[in-house]
Amino acid sequence: MARLSYVFLSAIAVMGANAASSVLDLIPDNFDKVVLKSGKPALVEFFAPCTPLRYEKNRHERLTNSGCGHCKNLAPVYEELAEKFAFANDKISIGRVDADEHKDLGRRFGVQGFPTLKWFDGKSDTPEPYDGGRDLDSLSSFISEKTGIKVRTKKAAPNAVELLNDQTFKQNIGQDKDVLVAFTAPWCGHCKSLAPVWETVAKDFTAEPRVLIAKVDAEAENSKSTAEAQGVKSYPTIKYFPRGSTTPEPYEGGRSEQAILDFMNQKAGTHRTVGGSLDTNAGIVASLDMIVQKLTAGGSLAAISQEASSAALGLKDRYAEYYVKVFEKLSKSEGYVQKELGRLDGLIKKGGLAPEKLDDIVSRSNILRTFTAKAKSKEEL
């Protein structure tokens, strides 16, 4: 009874694994039909679990405590290989034979060790041994060469983090950018934990031409001298280089996206939020905002408009002139601010804006909202 229960449970396990796996389970009953007579080629792995089966989650892997180590190492690679070619399952089969359970199949094709990989052309019973590498790229290349089938791969997005070496470090530091640099090492666990956060922060600042989020591989031949010159002794070491300066400031804050954003916003005068959007202070010019407050407090539009025009003359901020424009528009139409806000909000909701254009619209919207508390009409002149 116990034996029957074990067989029954094993069968259920196999069914569950098959449902989630792209690798074909080959047994004596289906081997000839699938591999030899189907007319399509097949890559077949002959493996040996050596001990009772157990399955892990939904992955079609036969895992053991004391079985074939090479089989266990190949299992996830082989599964991924099958998944990559699943789109072409009408042209190629990727299968697996438990040669410990089905010894006759193993002997039939001269299998003497595990795992053994053989290539069948789908027309004959004489396979070609596969003697190449057992990594995903080698196996994929072999199948592509045999069949002409190209694996569908998603083009990787370019890294937002700038990798600096001895030469590019000198070219970027002390110039017109605020630079935050992480000095890392390939083997460093904390560096690996920081990497995705660092990439996310770099993406948040993509639209900031004067901010650079970078890293230096402190053990690479082309950058180790830079790390040494910067006195890097542990990893990751993070340093901030202000715009126009080669003298760094150590970063000792938190390692979260928010913590790093807060630091760089404060140092570089930017207004980025988690996700890369602008906050509600983007575009606001402090000195002109104080003048707007006089208007919203009930001051004369004409007098305050003149004051704003004079104050804007000595400012280099790109949005100073926008304040002047809003005052001029208000003098001609008391409903200008609300109408323009509606137009800009509509553009944002419509989407499809280039990042730079979106930033500009958000900044102008922020400025307009400072006028909405109590905008004055031209009748109050």
Question: What can you tell me about this protein's structure?
Answer:
The protein has helices at residues 2-20, 28-36, 69-84, 103-108, 136-147, 166-172, 189-204, 224-229, 257-268, 286-296, 301-313, 320-332, 336-350, 355-370, and strands at residues 24-26, 42-47, 93-98, 116-120, 128-129, 162-163, 178-184, 211-217, 237-241, 249-250. Strand 7, helix 7 (189-204) and strand 8 form a beta-alpha-beta unit. The protein has 381 residues and is of the alpha/beta class. It is 45% helix and 12% strand. The model is unreliable at 1-19, 51-66 and 374-381 (pLDDT under 50). Strands 1-3-2-4-5 form a 5-stranded mixed sheet, with helices on both faces. A 5-stranded mixed sheet has the order 6-8-7-9-10. It contains 14 helices and 10 strands.
What percent strand?
A: 5-15%
Structural class label: alpha/beta
Number of helices: 14
Largest sheet: 5 strands, mixed
Q: What is the end-to-end distance?
A: 99 Å
Mean pLDDT: 86
The largest beta-sheet arranges its strands as 1-3-2-4-5
Tell me the Rg in angstroms. Answer: 33 Å
**Which shape, going by the Cα principal axes?**
elongated
Please bin the fraction of helical residues.
40-55%
Helix and strand pattern: HEHEHEHEEHEHEHEHEEHHHHHH
Tell me the number of strands: 10
Low-confidence stretches: 1-19, 51-66, 374-381
Oligomeric status: single chain
Entry summary:
This protein has 381 residues and is of the alpha/beta class. The chain has 14 helices and 10 strands. The strands form 2 sheets. A 5-stranded mixed β-sheet has the order 1-3-2-4-5, sandwiched between helices. A 5-stranded mixed β-sheet has the order 6-8-7-9-10.
